[in-house]
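Notes from hallway chat w/ T.B., transcribed later so I don't forget. T.B. wanted the structure written out for a chain they're using in a teaching module, and asked if we could keep both sequence and structure tokens in one place. Agreed to drop them here.
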Amino acid sequence: MNKKIRLGIIGLGAEGAMYANFLRDGRVDNMEIGAICDILPEKKEQAGEYGVPFYADYKELVTSGDVDAIVTTVPHYLHPEIGIFALENNVHALVEKPVGVYTKQAKELIEFAKTKPELKFGVFFNQRTNQLYKDLKSIMDSGELGKLRHTSWIITTWWRPQGYYNQSDWRATWGGEGGGVLVNQAPHQLDLWQWICGTPEKVFARNSYGFRRDIAVEDEVHALVSFPDGASGAFITCTHDMIGTDRLEILCDKGKIVVDDSKKVTISRLVDNEEVLSQNMDMEDVRKLFTGQLDMTKYLSVETKAYESVWGEQHCEVMRNFAAAIHGEEELLAPGSDGIYGVALANGIHLSSWTGEEVDLVNFDEQTYLNELNKRIEAEGKFEVRN
């Protein structure tokens, strides 16, 4: 195998072209373009500028001998199918998010990957390379703030005008895309939320479908989750807020983390567990609290930090890490098996909103979800149902 991993880019749309440009420009020092695939004939001319073989069939690319690994920049439903074929043919697979549209489909890829332990299977969660979120995970994993009590993420910076949805027949459909904001815009946040705070066990949700856009899928989501130890969480997202908010809060026994716009982090650290501080306050302390005279610096310290990032560096870092993992030099930052958590939460949010009931995520009824999804695909009348 060459020192540089030869990557096959399957799908030369906006995302695929972005990765191709990064590789051509030498921004990933241990990886290069091996070949490009797209089903649209006109893409062959565009691919010519990269000076690599072009294929109209992904299976031909995978079996060509031109690539060591592939990345799937194609519609979501195709990720498992292409990932499995690559692994079957001893080619490493880096799958774009989400790993699959529904858990049954995602698990097929994840379970097959287990039969090929010599190959690397990753998911393109580029936000896991963001130093801000890496630092938050380290803080939460260290236990310095104690146990999680509550967390909320309002992420409404996905404003999309109607023209965005009108650009293709498959976009914002159940049969073509598999959902709306939960499967298109918010998978990174669904992953990060669980990566940092842990996996919730139940969810209750209220979604709006075609609320402020002429689409069949969800353009607004309000979800409440519960964690195994009693902690709670809330997730709010939409695609019709032209102003937008991005705010993550994590409340723990001994402090609180607040992230604004994925750039500024404020960490408040209590000198002891909040319950201990509460029990040790007398009525004089309470009087001072009510009158604004209580010296809060006795009880907590506040740290604020701003983060900056260079456009594209996160995507380049995912590819660099994937190549390093293939060479046995590093562990995958985002193993493909981790992709199931975001898919399960998105499916659970959908199912809860459809049934009006709280959904068990630990023992998720994936067949009921698939049945409900297929009802919506059939109603669209444009795509085949899934199995």
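Follow-up for T.B.: The chain has two domains: 5-128+312-335, 131-309+341-380. Might be a good example for the class.
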